[in-house]
Amino acid sequence: xxxxxxxxxxxxxxxxxxxxxxxxxxxxxxxxxxxxxxxxxxxxxxxxxxxxxxxxxxxxxxxxxxxxxxxxxxxxxxxxxxxxxxxxxxxxxxxxxxxxxxxxxxxxxxxxxxxxxxxxxxxxxxxxxxxxxxxxxxxxxxxxxxxxxxxxxxxxxxxxxxxxxxxxxxxxxxxxxxxxxxxxxxxxxxxxxxxxxxxxxxxxxxxxxxxxxxxxxxxxxxxxxxxxxxxxxxxxxxxxxxxxxxxxxxxxxxxxxxxxxxxxxxxxxxxxxxxxxxxxxxxxxxxxxxxxxxxxxxxxxxxxxxxxxxxxxxxxxxxxxxxxxxxxx
Length: 329
Ligand code: FAD
Ligand code: NAI
Known about the structure:
- By secondary structure, the protein is of the alpha/beta class.
- It has helices spanning 12-23, 63-74, 110-117, 160-166, 171-178, 235-240, 246-260, 309-328; strands at 5-8, 28-31, 44-46, 49-51, 78-80, 85-89, 92-95, 103-105, 122-123, 128-133, 138-142, 147-151, 154-156, 182-192, 202-205, 210-215, 227-233, 270-281, 290-292, 297-299.
- The chain folds into 2 domains: 5-42 and 113-180 and 285-328, FAD/NAD(P)-binding domain (3-Layer(bba) Sandwich), CATH 3.50.50; 46-110 and 181-281, Alpha-Beta Complex (Polyamine Oxidase, Chain A, domain 2), CATH 3.90.660.10.
- Helix 1 (12-23) packs parallel to helix 3, helix 1 (12-23) runs parallel beside helix 8 (309-328) and helix 4 packs antiparallel against helix 5.
- The structure holds flavin-adenine dinucleotide and 1,4-dihydronicotinamide adenine dinucleotide.
- Flavin-adenine dinucleotide is lined by residues 8-14, 31-34, 39-41, 54-58, 127-128, 157-159, 162, 185, 187, 232, 276, 279-280, 301-302, 307-309, 312.
């Protein structure tokens, strides 16, 4: 019997590790508390069309990720997004074009996770609460009290605060994860019956409750019944208003959006809010991935590198590389 490797988390880090291990001939089994893959790179289906509420786009700077993105592009899973970019500083809105290549999943950000998962064995709506090692193999316990295993190794690919709890049996790694602070982001989507009268399709914002806004519909391949916009609050505003009701968050951020734009902004006919509790690490690290190779447990995620899609993908690759080299040692 082949004893598979367990991967907790089907965000881009967990999926990247899974792909690298499968390519090296290993069997993996994925777990996620959400209903589907993608984590912070997933999209929400709504009455206004699908919405990218988390990662908005990604850049590729490391040559390994550049080559991965080229493959995704060849498979039709990603396309370049070339928005009319603006910058808003102290209430002054100005065009801010640049030469940066920015990628998005098509027809939605979540398409990358779905495609990367393929038919890899995975259990969704399954929150893992405990990770423990028997005499030889690893076992997982979920929130319903069910046990999963045996597994030869475990890769923990979840945000640092969630990893801390799962690493209780490996205090050395738990202590590293516990030292990583992650900031929240409130996201709001608005849908308008008629397109707003602005050429702006994306905007970096300073000096406002907002940090970023984008015309979701301007991304390639999106089908939308309304003119859809996604607004992200800054980490600071999100932290200060972490327990505000969704209705109040929508009202505040809609107000900030209307104030920022130089065109009339009617009341939206569609709105929703989503709170990302662990949106981004407060600082970058250079760990790649964490490991206790003797025990056979590995940890990856954006917080081990740059706090971006690229960092998460590279971290997953690094966890797989460490695991494979320990097996070959
Ligand atoms: P995640 O995507 O968080 O995946 C972790 C997975 O683990 C999740 O699916 C979760 O459900 C699961 N999980 C957690 N705990 C458990 C448990 N106990 N049991 C089972 N499953 C569990 N990056 C960019 O490059 N560009 C951007 O424009 C950008 N914008 C962003 C905007 C927002 C609002 C947010 C939130 C993030 C943004 N990012 C952006 C960051 C980017 O989304 C992340 O860096 C990346 O997606 C993280 O991937 P990951 O696999 O490390 O973690
Ligand atoms: P990038 O190179 O487009 O942006 C990096 C940063 O440079 C931006 O945040 C912005 O401050 C600045 N910038 C870039 N182009 C600009 C322009 N034309 N005009 C004005 N400012 C510009 O992309 P990269 O490096 O891949 O970063 C990813 C993005 O994801 C960042 O914007 C980051 O803030 C965002 N992010 C948001 C998270 C959240 O929780 N809201 C979490 C993680 C990343």
